[in-house]
Amino acid sequence: MVNMNLETKHVRPFLLAVLLFIPAMLLPFCVFPQLKKEAKAPDSAGIRRIADFARVWGVIHYFHPNMGKGKLNADSLMIANIGDLLADPSAQNLKKSLATMLSDLKDPYSKLLNDPDPKSAAQKNTSTQYPAEALGNYQLAKKELYLAVPQELFLKQRVPDSIIGKHKAIRSFVIDLRNNSLNADLGLKQYIRFVQPLIASLINSTLIFPTSRSFYYKGLMRQDYPHDLSIRSPDEKGFIKDQLQVHNGFRNISEGAYLLPAKSVSLPEQARFCFLVNRNVNINTLRSLMALRNRNLCRLIFVGELPEYLHGDSFPMQLSDGLSLQIRTSEMIYEDGTLGTFPDLILKDDPETLLKSDLQRTAFKLLHTPLKNTAEKTIENTVYIRKPQYSYPSATVPDARLRLLGLFNFWNSIYYFSPNKHLIPTSWDLSLTYFIPKFLEADSDSSYFMALMELTASIKDGHSILIKNKIGRTPAGIFDGNLPLLSNSLNGKTYLTAILPDSLQQNALAQLRTGDEVLAIDHIPVAQHSKEWSRFIVASNEAGFNREYDATWFAAGSAGTEAVITTRRNGIDQQTSLKRIKRDDYYNLRGKLVRTPAVPELYPPFCKILPGNIGYLRMNRIYSKELDSISNLLKNCKSIIVDARGYPKDGKIGTALAGYIATKPDTVAYNVFPFVISPDLSKNATIIDYEIIKPNPNQNLKHKKYYVLVDEGNQSQGEWNIIALQGVTKATTIGCTTAGANGMAVTINFPGDYFSFFSGFGEFYPDHTPNQKSGVKIDIPVKRTLEGLISGRDEVMGKALEILKDQR
Question: Do both 174 and 203 map to the same domain?
């Protein structure tokens, strides 16, 4: 121990952590060795290219149809194709990496769009002009008829389908529906007045048009399920209940269009039809003819390039270096559950090869070929699936590809599925390029852990705690120790509020007193210390941050390392050297603190009657099955204190207790789930689920005055319990700001056997007040005092008893 004024320099050798792009950051990370570089960090252009790869991978991962069939592995797509780009993040390697990843999809409609062939581009700009004959009626043979029915024909009020019925001897019809341009009005008339009645005459049962099927997400599926576990929750008897742990996960979404059979056109017996179409034909015409061809009821020749919508929707992306691409995000499903049959012929739109006589001969020749059933088709998945995310456990730090896999996975998950992305104080779009260099160079246990800490903390969501499987909060040797002290933040200052009984440091600890103001840790001012920690501590609000900082991260470091703490007492500053003890020992010593509370003991029994016939109930320590006996004990109490602080042992206790209190069905809150069907965020929406409390017939706890106690220890289910009680009573809520992190913690895996969470839906009061970040509504706020913290006085409970005393 060394005593001196704060201005005196106390020099001691220690190593500072080198966090990328944060030079000379004075954090208390003296336990970290100098970080070793795997390779020189890419320049900003290289980082943007790697970020582009991440975004493309995210679209494929969550929206490409092939990913929902269990045949492709998203992780493998990324790991196998990013290597060259990491070695040299050049424009050429970005293009190469994307091209190889897209080729692995086996989907010709997901592709790079750059460098079009000049000849083909010229051909697209000079399309064939089709003659707009008025019912071009050419009989080539005794039983063959060519009929041109372009959309221009419908400038006049004419119904040309009768032409077919007049030719009773004709057996082969070639119907030319090609148009020179897209015209919404005339194209629709072409369909309604001619195509629709003709097709209705060719079918004998309802014809269902092909429909686009895409992913449907009601929030994001948690990623930590093992491969052999059903996602449904069995009850204690093994039965599957309706509730899904992942809130429905994935579904396919489609729209239905159909055509009923009708004999509106009198057709010759055994008539056969071949239709000529191009991309300027109305969408209804093309979809109906594709459905008809899928039934083997016609032949179909397509002239030119097929419209993209016949294969499904595509999402265009503009990337660095002028690159652009499209990724298919849905597929066309036909009435038989397959991807359908495509046109018999797809011909180039080339005037030299599409002479009328040649085209007609091709069409009639096709008609003279017997119509046979197409090759056996595969019935597609009726729903999409999602494979569990692998955690890649490893005894060493994961390599750069795996580290980036974790970053890409987390970033895309938040980008598409976080209902609270708008609450992130910095741009989530820009965060990807910020974190890529950090993860590239995080090649040691300590630097990788800190990169993950900063990433998960960056979303400012109290759910996003970082955990390492089988170990807990921190890896061995990294922030696994604490000084044997307790601190609390009050009014912008930090004070020692307890000295833990560490027998090995009695002499050093004897120099400290509860109530001492903490000025610095390892010569870093506490204000700066806590500010720097704010980048690494997971919290939705200040109350949650102070809870985590005071309880775990204040002066944290590797167990066994030494720290210098500078304190002030009565205007005199002193410095004390202490060793950090193991985290488990720290928590055990905290449990041995003996304090004399100034209010009645808040320990077992967790339900009791206090003086003055005041009921007391510690909600986070009771179970739903005990409510009948509890209600019988408290039935004669006019006022009941519900101590809702802490996380409940029974996840259903809040809903159950609210049911005992409720006198009528009440909507106490609503949940907002992301409704995601497309990587185009403008096409997505939200789904609202209402939380309704139904009254329990037990009358013992109804019509009483309730006082609900809350503090920063309330989070997630602990906050929902309060909201449920507030919704069914006129309760007075007393206490401190809660953590403001609610809404189904969705698990996210990271390579290296880490995992984290984020809040999967937004929780709101019926008046639209959010719970996230704000915490629950409080009627009477309580500000803790230094005297109360030192003595262990429960000032929240004290305020409740004070109010009740005044009301008697």
Answer: yes
